[in-house]
Amino acid sequence: MTETAGELTDFPRDPTETNLRLYELSWKIALDGKVIIELPSGRILDCNPAAERMAGLPRAAIVGRRVEELLSPEDEPRVLELLGEMSPLPERLRDFRLVRPNGQAFAILVSTSGALTLDDGRVVSVCEFQDLSVQKHQEHRLATKRWALSAYAAAANALSDQHNQSSLLRAICAAIVTEPAYVFAWIGVAEHDAEQTMRVAAEAGPGSGLLEGLRLTWGDNERGQGPASKAIRTGTIQIVPDTRKMQASSPWTDRFIDFGIDSCIAVPFQAEELRGALVVCAENAEAFGQVPVDMFTHLAQQVAHGLIAIQHDHLLKAEREHALAMERRLNEAMLLMIEPMSLAMEMRDPYTAGHQNRVADIAVAIGAEMGWTADRLRGLRIAALIHDIGKMSIPAEILTKPGRLSATERALVSEHCEHGYRVLKGIPFPWPVAAMVLQHHEKLDGSGYPNGLKGETILPETRVLTVADMLEGMSSHRPYRAAHPIEKALEILESEAGTALDAEVVAVCARLCGEGKLTEFLDR
C-alpha cells in the first residue's frame, strides 16, 4: 500500500473506484476535524480541511507534528498513554482541549478508529476532533428553554389556585424558583408617593437576602437604575445577560455577585391602576433567550390578569374559566417551545428533516380514528414532535453517514431513547411525554430497546407512536436505501401485528392508508 501526500491511501478501503471517491469526498467535506496518526509515535500523517480550520494551521504545518502538540499541555500525559496502549476497538474520549497558535483553546470530543495495521506493517489510527463549543452552546439554549418551560408550568398551576393578591404573588415567585436554575424571583409594585417607592410585594428563593436594606424606587434617579425600576418606569422588558459585565458603579453589581446571580430579567405588568414588574434571577449567564423571554412575558401578563380577577372578586365560575384558559395557554406555550426543539434536532440530520412532524401527523390521525380525546392527542403530538430529541447527543457524522452503521455506531444511536428521556424527565408535562420518548423503540414481544418491555408495560400512546414512526421511516428515502412503497411498508407492519406491534393500531393505520388519509403526510 502506497502513501501519497494529501491522499488517503494509508489504510484499507473499499476497492471500488466509486466508493473510493465517495470516501475521499467525505474526508474533504466533513465538518469535524480528522487526522491520521502513526502509532505509537503519534506523528500526524495526514489531516482534512476541517482539522486545518480547527487547529488554525495549514496542512503543511500539521503533517509531521506529534498529535499532542495540537493539544493543551495538560492533556499530554493522557495522550501518551493512549498512543502507547491503543486498542483495536474504536474509542470516544472527552475533556481534551485543542490549542490554536493564538492561544485560543476550546473543548473537543476525540474519537479514534482504534489501532489499524497497514499492509506494510505500520500501525495507524484515524482520529476525529469534534468541536464541543457549538454543541455546548446548543445544549445551553435547550436548557434555558427547558428551565423556562418548567417554571412557567409550575407558575401557571399556581395562578389558578389563589384567591387574594398577596398569596397569588407569593405563589408565583415560589413556583418559579422550583426550577433550580432560577435562584431568586420577586415582584416589585409601584407606589404613588412622592419618592416613587417600589414595594417588594413577594419574593422567593435562596437569594432572598438580595433586596435586604435597599430603598427601592421606580423613579429616574441614582437608586432607580435597577432592572425592575427601569421596567416599571419605561414599560419595557429589561434583561441583564451577564451581571459581571454591569457597570462597577451600579449598586446591584456586588449584590448579584455575592448571591451567585449571573443574569436576570424584569418584565413589567399592569393590572388597572397597579403597575409592577416580575423579576427572575438565574445562576447562569445568558439564561434569557427568546423563548424564556416569551414565557415570562406570558406569565407577567397572566399575573396582571389574575390580579384584576381578584380585584373584581369574580365568582367561582369565572375562576374556573380562567384556570381552563391558563391551561390552554400553557399548552400553546409548550408547543411554542417544542417545535423549535424539534427543528434544532432535525437541522443536524438533513436526511430526516421533517420526519418528526410527519410522524406526529400520522400518530395523531391514528389516535383520532381510535376515538382519543383532544387532550390525549395533544400529548401524543408533543411526544412525537420530539421523540428523537436524544439524537442531539449522537455525533452528526454518524447520523448523516451515507452507508450502513457499524455495530459500535448502532449501539451509540440506540442510546438516543435514554438520552431523550433524561432531557425531558424533569419537565412537568401533563402527559407522560418522557416515557413515550423512552419507549418508542420498544416492542410488545420484548424484542425492542432500550429495556425490552413487553405487553401492557408499554403505554398505548407509545404503541401508536411506534407504528407511525415505522411507517414514516420505511416510506422515506435514506442514504443507504430507497423508500419503500406504502404497500410494502404496510405489509411489514401487518406481519408484526399481534406480536411486536399492537394489532388494533396496525389495523387502523392500514385502514387510513387504504382511504388515502395518510398520503398527504407521507408525501410532504
Automatic annotation (TrEMBL):
<feature type="domain" description="HD-GYP">
    <location>
        <begin position="330"/>
        <end position="524"/>
    </location>
</feature>
<dbReference type="InterPro" id="IPR000014">
    <property type="entry name" value="PAS"/>
</dbReference>
<dbReference type="InterPro" id="IPR035965">
    <property type="entry name" value="PAS-like_dom_sf"/>
</dbReference>
<dbReference type="InterPro" id="IPR037522">
    <property type="entry name" value="HD_GYP_dom"/>
</dbReference>
<dbReference type="Pfam" id="PF13426">
    <property type="entry name" value="PAS_9"/>
</dbReference>
<dbReference type="InterPro" id="IPR029016">
    <property type="entry name" value="GAF-like_dom_sf"/>
</dbReference>
<protein>
    <submittedName>
        <fullName>HD domain-containing protein</fullName>
    </submittedName>
</protein>
<feature type="domain" description="PAS">
    <location>
        <begin position="41"/>
        <end position="83"/>
    </location>
</feature>
<dbReference type="InterPro" id="IPR003018">
    <property type="entry name" value="GAF"/>
</dbReference>
<dbReference type="Pfam" id="PF13487">
    <property type="entry name" value="HD_5"/>
</dbReference>
<dbReference type="InterPro" id="IPR003607">
    <property type="entry name" value="HD/PDEase_dom"/>
</dbReference>
<dbReference type="Pfam" id="PF13185">
    <property type="entry name" value="GAF_2"/>
</dbReference>
